[in-house]
Amino acid sequence: MFIHFTKYLIYKKTKSSYEFHNCFLYILRKMKRLFILLLCLGTSLCALAQQKITIASSVSDSKTGDAVIGASIIEVGTLNGVITDIDGKFTITAPDNSSLEVSCMGYKTVVLSAATFPGKILLEPDTQYLEEVVVVGYGVQKKVNLTGAVSAVDGEKLASKPTTTAMDALMGAMPGVQINRSGGQPGAEGQSIQIRGFTSTNSTSVLVLIDGVEGDIALVNSNDIESISVLKDAAAASIYGARAAAGVVLVTTKKGVESDRAKIDYSGYVSFLTPTHMPQRVNAQKEQEMINLARLNANGAAEYNPEWTSWVGNPNFNYRENTNGRWEYFGQEDWVDAALKDVVTQHNHHVSVSGGTKKVNYMASLGYYRKNGLLRVAHDKNERISARVNLNAQLNKYMDLSVNGEYANNAQYAPAANFTYHNTTGASAVFKCLWMQCRNRQPIHNYDTEASTTYNHDLQQNPINVMNNGGVEKNIRNNYTVNANLKIHSFLPGLSVNFNVARRYVGQDYSEENKTLGAHGLADNSGVHQQYAVNNPNSFIRKQANSIQDKYEALITYSKEFASGHNLSALLGTTFESYRSSSMTTTVKNLSYENLFSLNYYDNSDPNNTDVED
Asked: What three-state secondary structure class fits 496?
């Protein structure tokens, strides 16, 4: 448009200028053709430059000359790759201008050009990798000397994942290690570790040792972990005996380092979680049509006739009062939306202080975690506070002392644990009731008064009333662990003696406050609708339990490295452990006051109102 407009203007002036303009347009057309020609030529050159070639080569050890089996050859920046066979040979097709990466565990990685790829590749052993040590039963070993199935992961890799617990961070971190979860309720996820699948038909569990003492890895903050080793087979875990039938997880926490000044580290996040997919319920009218069809097939008669069915979901006809004292409802209620949040928050914060000198170092940390549940109530959450102190001191040239202390407080809150529906209780029962029992034509609140705030229990239990007013379940656990280790060394070459003393305490304070919720509609002489009442009679349950584990251990270790490169290690030791536990659960029913939950105020005239278990 611009060219034609310019041509018109120039034509109006002079003939010579018009001829000049035609010459200019002719040059533009020639340049356009030249540009298209160059573009096609460039495309052809690129296609020629990316011509694929087939490479056949082999991979061997540079020192021994042996074939390297299982080495991976990958085209850099792509998923195109192969591995070497039993003879160390491979064949791969790739563009001749690409680069290929050759790698194998225990060897240094090399990157070579595909165009000049050699017929034989010599990989150098990675001595730094082979010299690295991993924690095994009662000590450490170099990776080159490992004979059992042992996997290890560095703590920095775990801390880099935005997970809530160290157990979550282990997901996908090591081969053969599976993290299972049986639920999603905050504090009751039911996590467990499984090593190489199910190893027994009995209920065996993985042995978890934190700095040599049994513990719960779910309570350990990922930022406090130095490394985790997993002993998978019998050869690696046999030193722990029958307790290691399902495998062993060894957790080593961080220690302080020599530093001119204290080092303060903080890590934390606030996240917003939303369900990725929730089951959708049909609307009230469709639901009623399905109920009518089910009743017709079962009993030969539908629950509602066509006229009544048309009332369901009609905003002009929500309810009516029946002669038997009940109310008939025809509304449209979204029970799931009224009970569940769209977004929940999660907090995780950790701060640590570390430092020390050549003879004394320390590391102290404090962590806070909170996760809110999906239910629209304040008492659906899990809170955890953890603290750790690690102190190491060189008493003299023969003795080293280390003292570790750990504390964790884990508090879980949930609605009405005594509420039961379809063999489930508490929050799980609320969820099931929302989808399986609640009719969408039934309102959450009654219509018997204007702006009624009383909850409707007609024909069904009301899970929203249960989670708001039915009571609270509290489960608070306190964990304390103190571990002291004295190491005597250097008095004889290669010989060291370790004395270890540890105590672990786990305390539980559990309570249930179950408030009676009556049903609207038909009632008995006491005024309570027996069929659909919840927590009838009201009750209060209190459980207190504690367990103490003491450990006394003495180990003698001897190691010697010979000039020929061979190593000799010997271990002699003894361990004594004691376990003590106690618990008491008290239940009282028919409380004297509806909102006063105490073991002292209840109807003690009936002996059935009291139950004590220990």
From this structure: strand
**Packed helices 2-13 and 15-49: angle between N→C axes, nearest 10 degrees:** 150
Residue 224 CA to residue 406 CA, distance in Å, equals 11
What is the C-alpha to C-alpha distance for residues 367 and 168, in angstroms, rounded to an integer? 16
- What global pTM score does this model have? 0.73
User: Do 547 and 520 contact (CB within 8 A), yes or no?
Assistant: no
What's CA 222's distance to the chain center, in Å? 12
Its sign, for the CA torsion 13, 17, 23, 29, is: negative
CA–CA dist 154, 600 (Å, integer): 53
- Among candidate residues 184, 442, 205, the one with its CA nearest the CA of residue 313: 442
Structure-token pair, residue 300: 């030969």
Q: Which residues contact 606 (CB under 8 A, 6 or more apart)?
A: 590
**Among 297, 507, 255, which Cα is nearest to 390's?**
255
Beta carbons within 10 angstroms of residue 169's beta carbon:
23
d(CA 192, CA 457): 38
Give dist(CA 105, CA 126) in Å, integer.
8
Per DSSP, 375 falls in state: B
What three-state secondary structure class fits 290?
helix
Bigger pLDDT: 403 vs 163: 403
Q: What residue type is assigned to position 542 of the chain? A: R
Alpha-carbon span 63 to 379, nearest angstrom: 65
Q: In this structure, is the dihedral angle defined by the CA atoms of residues 448, 450, 455 and 458, taken in order, positive or negative?
A: positive
pLDDT in tens, 107-156: 888 999 988 888 899 998 875 555 555 556 666 665 545 556 777 788 88
- E-only strand ranges, 19-97: 52-61, 72-75, 81-83, 89-95
User: Residue 495 and residue 557: Cα distance in Å, rounded?
Assistant: 6
CA–CA gap between residue 316 and residue 392 (Å, rounded):
76
- Token pair in block for residue 321: 């009062």
Per the CB < 8 A criterion, the answer to whether 167 and 149 are in contact is: no
> What three-state secondary structure class fits 467?
helix
Neighbours of 27 (CB within 10 A): 9
Confidence band of 18 (pLDDT split at 50, 70, 90): very low
Distance CA 380, CA 500 (A): 41
Structure tokens at 400: 């080293």
How far apart are alpha carbons 500 and 514 in whole angstroms? 46
Query: What pLDDT, on the 0 to 100 scale, is given for residue 611?
Result: 92
CA-to-CA distance for 481 and 461, rounded, in angstroms?
45
**Which residues fall within 8 angstroms of residue 492, CB to CB, at 6 or more apart?**
none
User: What is the chain's length?
Assistant: 614
Residues 6+ apart with CB under 8 A from 56: 89, 90, 91, 119
Bridge partners of residue 259, in order along the sequence: 356
Handedness of CA 196, 199, 203, 204 (dihedral sign): negative
532, 326 contact by CB (below 8 A): no
**Structure confidence by residue, pLDDT tens digits, 19-72:** 444 544 455 565 666 656 655 555 444 444 568 889 899 999 888 888 998 889
First-to-final CA distance of the chain: 95
The residue that leads in pLDDT, 452 or 391, is 391
Which residues 6+ apart lie within 8 Å of 214 measured at CB? 207, 208, 504, 549
Give, as one character, the DSSP assignment of residue 396. Answer: S
